[in-house]
Amino acid sequence: MLSDTARPVIEATLPLVGSRIGEITPLFYQKMFAAHPELLNGIFSRANQANGQQRQALAGAIAAFASHLVNHPGTLPEAVLSRIAHKHTSLGITEDQYPIVYKYLFEAIAEDLAEVITPEIAEAWTEVYWLMADALIKIEKGLYAKQANDKMWMPWRVVEKTPASPTTMTFVFEPADETPVTPGEPGQFVSVRIPVADGLLQARQYTLSADAESTERRVITTKFNDGGEVSPIMHEKIQVGDVVELSNPYGDVTLDDGDGPLVLATAGIGCTPAASILRTLANNGSGREVLALHADRSLDTWALSDQMLGDVQKIDGASLKVWLEQPQAELAAVGAGAGAGAGAAETHEGFMNLADVEIPENANVYLCGPLPFMQKVRSQAIAKGIPATKIHYEVFGPDLWLASQN
């Protein structure tokens, strides 16, 4: 917890620092990468630097952490810390890198707030940083220790490459050496690290879209134009037989161990964790009550539609509702024989709306998709009386909104 000395200082300066953090973080990254360009090689994403996502994520995390310390003394924002730690470990962040971040972040704070910064303010925010860093380091050490090996990156060979829609591709990998393999969990992700056009290594996280618990293969489904450098190369250059580097599996939004009802609400390529969960339930012969909800532009653009439709039919008590932004003729095709397992879905035209959806009592709700989609559906779920603690979500991008929900 914050010290009695630091707490009133943070409370008084949080609005100011919060209002300036969006300017502080670009200056921080500029300083850090100038001194440590090696951090751009396989750790930090250039694409996320260019589009501002990384800056927003850092700003949101710091502001949310400080706000939590002020408003909830004696506790830590466990959900936020867990989400960040899983992202960090999927990229190989290590304890010795935290002092580097501290040095350049606080140089940026001192420069941006030069007219108002005092030793007391600097000391208080230093306390905030190290409280957050120490908590993350502890969680990350635990996550690394759970792996079946002590390696960050392992070679995996592409054994299948299959279009999942006109803009998405499913890759199946098998181990390319004898490194012990950690089984994943439905909902988790792995990082893929490859050299991009100029030879720099860049990493991108992808959800395991099937067979998550296997130690013999990894399956991911990628979208060609996701704003990054890695996916286009995966689609255009990586071929069957090629060997690429994968991380161990990480991610804290996973299928729970209970037997209660599940609601899986997804949009676009966000269907991958739901597809993974459905595949695991189908493989295990589960009779669990599952309500799968998916929104997409069209049947044609719905990645993994055959897999999801087929697995829903294999699960006793499972049902699927689909919202497509296309004429009724295409919607009817979902229930009239389009694809494997067709006929399993109740179809709607337009955007997903939970107003007329009957949510099973005491269900755990999982969300994945674009941020506006998750904001809307989460609000609709809460309006229907679902406790916030029963709603789980994953997003690969800024944690500003996510942090504020915990």
What can you see in these coordinates?
There is one protein chain. With 406 residues, the chain is an alpha/beta fold. It contains twelve helices and twelve strands. A six-stranded antiparallel β-barrel has the order 1-2-5-4-3-6. A hairpin with a 7-residue loop joins β4 and β5. α1 packs antiparallel against α3, α1 packs across α5 and α4 packs across α6. It is globular.
Quaternary: single chain
Main β-sheet description = 6 strands, antiparallel, barrel
- Gross morphology is globular
* Mean of pLDDT: 90
Order of strands, main sheet, comes to: 1-2-5-4-3-6
Distance between the termini: 17 Å
Percentage of residues in strands: 15-25%
Number of DSSP E strands: 12
How would you summarize what this structure contains?
This protein is α/β, with parallel strands linked by helices.
Primary descriptors:
single chain, 406 residues, alpha/beta, six-stranded antiparallel beta barrel, six-stranded parallel sheet, 12 strands, globular, disordered C terminus
List the helices and strands and how they pair.
Blueprint: H1 6-35, H2 46-51, H3 53-71, H4 78-89, H5 98-112, H6 119-145, E1 154-165, E2 168-175, E3 189-195, E4 201-210, E5 218-223, H7 230-236, E6 243-246, E7 262-267, H8 271-283, E8 290-296, H9 305-314, E9 318-324, H10 328-334, E10 345-349, E11 364-368, H11 371-383, E12 391-394, H12 400-404
Parallel strand pairs: 7-8, 7-11, 8-9, 9-10, 11-12
Antiparallel strand pairs: 1-2, 1-6, 2-5, 3-4, 3-6, 4-5
Helix pairs in contact: 1-3, 1-5, 1-6, 4-6, 5-6, 8-9
